[in-house]
Amino acid sequence: MKETLSHRQLQSLIEVSNVLNSTLDIDTVIDSIMDQTVSITEAAHGGVLFIYDKVQNVLLPRSNRRFTTALSEVRLRPGESMTGLAFNARECLIFKNRVEVEKATATLSEKNSKLMYASVPMLPYSSICSPILSNGECIGVITLDSFDPNLQFVPQDIHLLNAIAHQAAVALEKANLYQEQEQTVKVLERLNNTIIDQNKILSRSVEIHKNLATLVLKGEGLQSIISYLHEITGYQVFLFDELGENISHAYDVSWNDDKLFKLKEKVQNTMQTTEIVRSSIERTINPHYPYINLLTIGARPEIFGSLVVAASEKIDAVDLAALEHACTVISLEMVKEQAIFEAKERIDGEFINDLLAGKMDDALVQKAKQLHFDPSGNYIALILRIDEEDQLRTSISRHFIQLANHIFSHHQIKGIAVRNHDQIVILMTFPQKVSVSYTTTQIKELVSKLQHEYVVKKWGDALSIGIGRIHPTLQKATKSLQEAAKCLQFMSSYGENNKVVSYKDLGVHQLLLQNTEDELMEFIYETLGPLIQYDQNKKGGLLPSLFAYLEHNQNAKEAAEAIHVHTNTLLYRLKRVEEILETNLSNSQQFLTINLAVSLYPFLQEKIEMG
Hints:
five-stranded antiparallel β-sheet, Beta-Lactamase, Alpha-Beta Plaits, single chain, alpha+beta
């Protein structure tokens, strides 16, 4: 029987060797070890092959026979249960009976014990555990179990199991080496694919960069660059400036005004609320192009704007990289355009400064001619003041100047617009033969468009515009500039900001600019002082009655209705006014003096009442 058994074991080992050498797949090798070991060991009804994990310092069940899936969650520490004891012993151990099995499994952790009992209905009657040794280290354990009380493992089984464990160690080592080589090959393949992708990105970027550079060198401008990006990528391309205004685009008909407005709002919000280099925008703006990317042009604090690209599908890395390269070219083009703008503005600004300084000489006349200004023409000046922080004011000013220049070009008007500190100075000239009504109409249209732009674009709360009078010849253009400046001074001094004031329409209020505040207050006190004092002491309502009477052109009935009193009451009050001021409202000279004082009073009322 012993010889027959030994011969059978030998035959079984040959079979095991053939099976294990038939594959290099690690999982197949592990399953084959388990299948062959259980099948050729007479007492074995089931078993588990554990592999040691150095990182976690635990034995992991990798293949089993007869056990349920609950076993897969077992994590045995070295020395824990029968398998852990064999791992530490580095030799094959037999647990001959249920008593020895129970003693060994009593070392299981609470969690592992629950999992073990969940994976098999009862403890084995006998078990054998053989460590798998490789280069002197234990890399796993083969555990076999007998669930028949009449079949126990015997010492002869140790030789067989040790021989299988040795072959298993060789097979696992080969499979592990093969797996490592496969992983190395996969890593190399990934690296190769990455290099190929990077080359694609580089090639595409270089191609686009080269073509964009050609457009720039030819002086084609921003619109040609945006159109090229649209053509080469098929994407919808928009260029926004630092204020979030769309200054160039190339898109199809699916973008109506509503969608463009929503896109603009999203761009403005994104630029204001995030320190962005690249950002995704809400997809619901245009269902045809749900993938929208915003790329910053420039870097803070010098942000020139943003390039917005919309696509029907997710934009791939190659195109995104190429678009980022395009942003560099666009930023250079925008810097160039800004430099040209600033150079022209500097020349125009020097001309305006010379006019303001009164430098009327041949050099100034020559500058005027270079600007296509007729020195003998009529001139009128506007000055705009924008109440915003410096950086935003600069951007808004540039927009206003560009808008003014566009209007000049469209209406064939000779004019210049320049920044002057926190203001925008606009000087326009018209031939002498042009009527005043035509000039006035052109001025009103320009002011209306400037105001409309400011409100629609939501650039701020206060835009004040002062307008000088029309003066003949370049020599008197300085006077119009001064008058426009006085209008702004008037608004600033008397709380009239965010308005349009024409010097011509100031009328009697010009006195506010031509006299000191003390002189004006002295005049009002001399004219209305007793009446002001009377109203403060008696609360007689005489001053409001006088104001209403003058405001309604001496119509007593209308004035009485305006202040909700009877006409007779108003007439009585006017009589008292004459008595207190010792004047006669029927006297034209005295009436003119009182009317002038009343016109000036609202602008100085607060200081008069405090004084």
